[in-house]
Amino acid sequence: MVSATFMKIVSPCWKPSTEGENSNSDGEDNGRVDGLLWYKDSGHHVSGEFSMAVVQANNQLEDCSQLESGPLSSLESGPQGTFVGIYDGHGGPEAARFVNDHLFDNIKTIHGAEFTSESCGISADVITRAFLETEEEFLSLVRNQWLNKPQIASAGSCCLVGIICSGLLYIANAGDSRVVLGRMENDVKEVKAVQLSSEHNASMEFVREELRALHPDDPQIVVLKHKVWRVKGIIQVTI
Question: For the sheet containing 80-87, what is the strand order?
Fold first, then answer.
């Protein structure tokens, strides 16, 4: 029963779409379940191969992940690439699922609107605008559903994105998830872990200082609770 229930929770949050293949039917044909662990062995995408795993930590899985491989623009003449999104939900799955359903589409739409032959690749500006557009769309949803579903206002999600396009790797992060690159060091024949993103987390002193500077009239903006720094004593993530 655990595996069957787990698969029902995971499948709507797992949206791989590799070139020439739509891998998301019910999930069972493309992944394997072992208790609270779901994983998918290597598959092909535009920039190479991938594998992915999900471990359920709560009664309800609040996280989502997706891999899209193919056009990165709404235009047929747009660039080809690979998009990976990891969305660490909290306070419920609604925000992570919303990002999973809208962020990549927003990137394609925004890129398509400003596409030119001189700037055919993806850009940091496109990714930033897609983040902001997705956030505004979710806030609009919260406002519209406030009276009937007020609990949605407490849901949120970290958002970690990697895009490979035209030989470049773009990393975007909002929250305290982390991207780590494994790079082979030929001289020692070992894989070296290289951190590619920085967390936004109240455990970091410079983040606490920034929050205090932004909220000088709130002495409780960061609170040490059970030896862990938290925003308002509730959550560690700060953006």
Answer: 64-71, 80-87, 159-165, 168-174
